[in-house]
Task: inverse folding
C-alpha cells in the first residue's frame, strides 16, 4: 500500500513538473530551438548553393578576352574566405563567429555583384548561353538566401524574446537556453530586400 501511494505521489509530482515546465516556456524553447537549427541549416544550404555556382561562373568569364582580372580575382578570393570558415551548431551561440561569417558572405556577395556589373560591358558574355543560365541560377539563389535568412531572423527573434522575458528566462537559466546570435542590426535592413544581380532584362533561350 505504501509503495502504491508513493507511486501515485511520484506520478502526481511528475505531472505538476511537466505542467510547470509547459507554463514556463519549456516546450516553446524546444520547438524554437529545433526551428532555429532547421532555419540555420537552410541558410547554410543556400550559401553553399551559391558557392557551388561560382567555379562555373568564373570558368565562363575567364573565356572572355580582356575581362578585368582584378574583379575575377576578388570573387575567387572572397569565395575562398567564405568557404574556409568552419560553421558549427555552436556558431549560433557565438556573436563574434556569426559576425565573421556574415562579413565573409557579404564580401562574396559584393564581389559577385561587381563581376556581374562589369560583365555588362561585354556583349559577347551577355550573349553567352552558359553565362546567362548561370546568371539566372545565381539570381534565384540570391533570392532563396534572402528568404532563408529572413526566416532564420524571425525564428531567432522569437527564441531570444522567450529567453530574455520573465518568467521564461528562469526556464532558460535552468536548462541553459542562452540567447542565440542573429544577423547584425546593421545588416537586417539590407537583408530584408533581395540583392540585385540582374544586369540584363533578357532571358536565356530555352
Result:
Amino acid at each position: 500500500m505504501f509503495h502504491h501511494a508513493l507511486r501515485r505521489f511520484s506520478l502526481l509530482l511528475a505531472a505538476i513538473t511537466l505542467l510547470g515546465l509547459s507554463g514556463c516556456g519549456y516546450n516553446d524553447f524546444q520547438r524554437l530551438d529545433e526551428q532555429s537549427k532547421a532555419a540555420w541549416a537552410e541558410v547554410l544550404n543556400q550559401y553553399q548553393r551559391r558557392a557551388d555556382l561560382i567555379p562555373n561562373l568564373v570558368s565562363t568569364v575567364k573565356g572572355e578576352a580582356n575581362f578585368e582580372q582584378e574583379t575575377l580575382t576578388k570573387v575567387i578570393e572572397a569565395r575562398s574566405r567564405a568557404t574556409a570558415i568552419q560553421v558549427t551548431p555552436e556558431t549560433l551561440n557565438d556573436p563574434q563567429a556569426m559576425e565573421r561569417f556574415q562579413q565573409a558572405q557579404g564580401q562574396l556577395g559584393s564581389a559577385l555583384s561587381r563581376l556581374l556589373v562589369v560583365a555588362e560591358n561585354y556583349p559577347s558574355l551577355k550573349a553567352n548561353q552558359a553565362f546567362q543560365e548561370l546568371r539566372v541560377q545565381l539570381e534565384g539563389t540570391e533570392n532563396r538566401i534572402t528568404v532563408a535568412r529572413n526566416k532564420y531572423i524571425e525564428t531567432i527573434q522569437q527564441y531570444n524574446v522567450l529567453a530574455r522575458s520573465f518568467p521564461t528566462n528562469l526556464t532558460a537559466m535552468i536548462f541553459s537556453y542562452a540567447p542565440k546570435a542573429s544577423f547584425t542590426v546593421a545588416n537586417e535592413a539590407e537583408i530584408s530586400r533581395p540583392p540585385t544581380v540582374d544586369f540584363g532584362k533578357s532571358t536565356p533561350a530555352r
In short: The chain has one domain: 36-191. The radius of gyration is 24 Å.
